[in-house]
Amino acid sequence: MKQPISQPELDISVVLPVYNEAGNLKTFIPELSIALQALGRSYEIIAVNDGSTDDSLDVLRALKQREPHLRIVQFRRNFGQTAGFAAGFDLARGTYVITMDADGQNDPADIPKLLKLMEEGGYDIVSGWRVERKEPFLSRRLPSLLANHLIGRATGVTLHDYGCSLKIYHWEVAKHVQLYGELHRFIPALASSMGVRVAEVPVNDRPRRYGKSKYNLSKTIRVILDLITVFFLLTYMGRPMQLFGLAGLVSGGVGFLLGLYLTLFKLFTGADIGNRPLLSLAILLIILGVQFLMMGLLGELMIRTYFEVQDKAIYVVRSEE
Ligand code: UDP
Ligand code: MG
Questions:
Q1: pTM recorded for the entire structure
Q2: How many domains are contained in the chain?
Q3: What is the pLDDT of residues 111-138, one digit of tens each?
Q4: Residue-range definition of the domain harbouring residue 228
Q5: Using CA positions, which residue lies closest to atom 19 of ligand 1?
Q6: CA nearest 36: which of 103, 106, 119, 110?
């Protein structure tokens, strides 16, 4: 980041995306308050009301009477959990930014454990790991097992449980990551591009008390698409020509060789090549090759615009001595 970010004013910011959680908030916010007060640090709770259609807002307002550290951020419509995290990160004033689900599935009693490791180990991210996850195996746990493995392989940041919302981020990380779409599950992976130290701690997983999960199987498909995006962002975003250019060269090269073979065949045997499927393939591969090369060039142009328009540095400094 080239622009200096203002300094944190508090110790802890807890970010809670809220979408129709009226029933859960009533018990969860007081439980969270007690856990935070016991830490003896300055804190704030940022509840991002993501266009709830139930009376979550009224519940939050009533809770604020008793918990002055509660900040209520009201979205104009439902933007999704990732947007909730992003808003919380932007507004957070704490040195440590803690993300949690507002449905009570994450246990506030785990916070001291995560915080301790964060401070003593000097980590940038400490992630919760739901060792005994309560959700169904086939629809939820199996897809996330696969996703965790793939993200780990692609990014070098191996976590058992990317999907666990309970995580602590050092303030610099929270302010630095750019979140889009459904990418909140991949924050540690995205942050790996700035070079972060990540640790993992087993945490409690509790069943949801009221309401239903906002996600279903379609989420699995979206997560897979996000995974492809994250993989690209982390590997070739800074050098798209090396990915597309390689594909272009291979495709174009094979097409050229096939065309050459057919031409020589025609010249030496005089046979007809107009009806050969191989000819179509050769033409297809050459056109594809040109397309890939153009895509690589366009990518290079876009990445320059990306860094220059935002005045973004291509590096991140940890400290200077
Ligand atoms: N959430 C949100 N916006 C949405 C969907 C979910 O803010 O569009 C919040 C939701 O209120 C909860 C958290 O994100 O605090 C996780 O959602 P949920 O419990 O439905 O997901 P699951 O735990 O089943 O993965
Ligand atoms: Mg939940």
A1: 0.85
A2: 2
A3: 999 999 999 999 999 999 999 887 788 8
A4: 10-236
A5: 213
A6: 110
